[in-house]
């Protein structure tokens, strides 16, 4: 029955993967906090206009990937395909442009109708940051430094390189745009249909095309850097200098553009070759015109987003977690005592597994399988003497402890793995 399968491109997140998502998300939130970013959450759906007006009507997201539907009152709504447009809408709706600078961290599901592959889903999860209100290059460097620190802390940075580029200011972009239009017009017959449309509306977008025919033309296309004005050059040089000062290594990729309309100046991607065509794990840039374009006060912004599924694929080590302790009653008579000990220990902060099923040896085996650190065995004879048995699963040692002093006897087993 079709409805017993998850919808194509979606997946259930079972405990092992969920632990990874939570590990990455929590680490990202805490590193973001060190940089002064506070966590927020915007709705999972917005009026379709929020995305249509900002992402650009030639972007892949708007033309092909959005989950748009009418609700019962006839409103056109869209499941969010990315975070920045929603955060910008939030800033305007809440009048927050009066309180600059603003620094936000977010995490949550995003939705894009794409061809599912390893590391590419229709419902996926992103973490991201946005820094608003600072037009100087130091803001670009702050968000890149934050990303770099996170990837290092996740121990994935060995496989990842940072690529950066500049898309210049508006004057430079308009200049370059003309040069690009001339170049691609000369090769119009070799362009993909999508790119012919982009040629009129947003030729820079062609540089981000994944079409193999387009890629060949792009390789020989004029490079942006030659058309930067001095303001754009100074800005980019300053970003690079500050990254050098922080010893953050990067590679300038003159072909790097971002797929959305609202980017200018800095664009960057942290890439790996370990994930095939899904090589970009974290990507972002500066979007100074966005909030004004949405109808808010002119407010500069810079930020990035990263996919949790792609990051998870790169993480080698299992996140640590506190190993549980098993409470094992030997017979039915000890069940009530087992529950009350378990509850008390949980109040004290222990992770406790209660074992009821099967004989004693089955209960011990199950506790071992759950990677319990130790078991407290409640047997009738020992309890009569006011004692319980303790089995250390790591050393195999078996000992006795006073029931009244159980807490202190278990302290040494309250460990992570
Ligand atoms: P791509 O070129 O791989 O399609 P993108 O440019 O569309 O990526 P962004 O919009 O910059 O991606 O999103 C930022 C990050 O979110 C990506 O680097 C990636 O890690 C993740 N991401 C984007 N789309 C998906 C998806 N469909 N499934 C899983 N992760 C995704
Ligand atoms: Mg994409």
Describe the SSE topology:
Blueprint: H1 15-34, E1 38-39, E2 45-47, H2 48-55, H3 60-65, E3 67-70, E4 76-79, H4 84-93, E5 102-111, E6 123-132, H5 137-153, E7 160-166, H6 170-186, H7 193-201, H8 212-219, H9 230-245, E8 251-252, E9 264-272, E10 280-286, H10 290-293, E11 301-307, H11 308-314, E12 325-329, H12 335-347, E13 352-354, H13 360-369, E14 374-378, H14 380-384, E15 387-392, E16 398-402, H15 406-410
Parallel strand pairs: 1-5, 7-8, 12-13, 12-14
Antiparallel strand pairs: 2-4, 3-4, 5-6, 6-11, 7-9, 9-10, 10-11, 14-15, 15-16
Helix pairs in contact: 1-5, 1-11, 5-9
Bound molecules: adenosine-5'-triphosphate and magnesium ion.
Adenosine-5'-triphosphate (ATP) binds next to strand 6, strand 10, strand 11 and helix 11.
Give your account of this protein's structure:
This protein is an alpha+beta fold. The chain folds into two domains: 2-169 and 229-314, Bira Bifunctional Protein, Domain 2 (BirA Bifunctional Protein, domain 2), CATH 3.30.930; 325-413, Rossmann fold (3-Layer(aba) Sandwich), CATH 3.40.50.800. 37% of the residues lie in helices and 21% in strands. Strands 1-5-6-11-10-9-7-8 form an eight-stranded mixed beta sheet. The chain has a five-stranded mixed beta sheet with strand order 13-12-14-15-16, sandwiched between helices.
Give the CA-based shape. Answer: elongated
Strand order of the largest sheet: 1-5-6-11-10-9-7-8
CATH topology label of the largest domain: BirA Bifunctional Protein, domain 2
Small molecules bound in the structure, each named once: adenosine-5'-triphosphate, magnesium ion
CATH architecture of the largest domain: 2-Layer Sandwich
Major sheet details: 8 strands, mixed
Strand content: 15-25%
- Kindly name the structural category: alpha+beta
Helical element count?
A: 15
Number of domains: 2
Approximate helicity band: 25-40%
Give the class-level CATH name of the largest domain: Alpha Beta
Give the integer mean of the pLDDT values: 93
CATH superfamily of the largest domain: Bira Bifunctional Protein, Domain 2
């Amino acid at each position: 029955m079709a409805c017993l399968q998850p919808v194509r491109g979606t997946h259930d997140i079972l405990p092992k993967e969920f632990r990874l998502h939570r590990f990455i998300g929590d680490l990202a939130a805490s590193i973001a906090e060190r940089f002064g970013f506070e966590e927020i959450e915007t709705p999972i759906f917005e009026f379709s206009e929020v995305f249509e007006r900002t992402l650009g009507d030639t972007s892949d997201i708007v033309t092909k990937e959005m989950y748009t539907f009418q609700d019962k009152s006839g409103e056109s709504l869209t499941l969010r395909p990315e975070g920045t447009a929603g955060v910008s809408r939030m800033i305007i709706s809440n009048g927050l442009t009066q309180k600059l600078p603003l620094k936000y961290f977010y995490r949550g599901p995003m939705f894009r109708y794409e061809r599912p592959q390893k590391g590419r889903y229709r419902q996926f999860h992103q973490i991201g940051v946005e820094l608003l209100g600072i037009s100087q290059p130091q803001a670009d460097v702050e968000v890149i430094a934050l990303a770099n620190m996170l990837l290092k802390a996740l121990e994935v940075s060995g496989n990842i390189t940072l690529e950066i580029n500049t898309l210049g200011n508006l004057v430079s972009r308009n200049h370059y745009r003309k040069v690009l239009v001339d170049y691609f017009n000369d090769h119009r017959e070799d362009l993909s249909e999508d790119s012919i449309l982009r040629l009129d509306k947003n030729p820079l977008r062609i540089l981000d095309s994944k079409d193999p025919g387009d890629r060949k033309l792009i390789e020989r296309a004029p490079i942006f850097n030659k058309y930067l004005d001095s303001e754009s050059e100074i800005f980019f040089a300053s970003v690079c200098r500050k990254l050098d000062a922080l010893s953050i290594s990067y590679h300038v990729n003159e072909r790097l553009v971002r797929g959305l309309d609202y980017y200018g100046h800095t664009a960057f991607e942290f890439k790996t070759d370990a994930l095939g065509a899904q090589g970009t794990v974290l990507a972002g840039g500066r979007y100074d015109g966005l909030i004004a374009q949405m109808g808010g006060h002119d407010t500069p912004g810079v930020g990035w987003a990263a996919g949790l599924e792609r990051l998870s694929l790169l993480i080698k080590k299992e996140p640590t977690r506190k190993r549980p302790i098993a409470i094992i009653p030997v017979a039915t008579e000890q069940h009530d005592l087992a529950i009350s000990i378990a509850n008390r220990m949980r109040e004290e902060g222990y992770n406790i597994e209660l074992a009821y099923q099967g004989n004693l040896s089955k209960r011990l085996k199950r506790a071992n399988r759950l990677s319990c650190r130790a078991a407290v065995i409640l047997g009738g004879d020992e309890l009569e003497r006011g004692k319980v048995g303790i089995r250390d699963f790591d050393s195999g040692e078996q000992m006795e402890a006073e029931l009244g002093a159980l807490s202190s006897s278990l302290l040494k087993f309250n460990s992570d793995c």
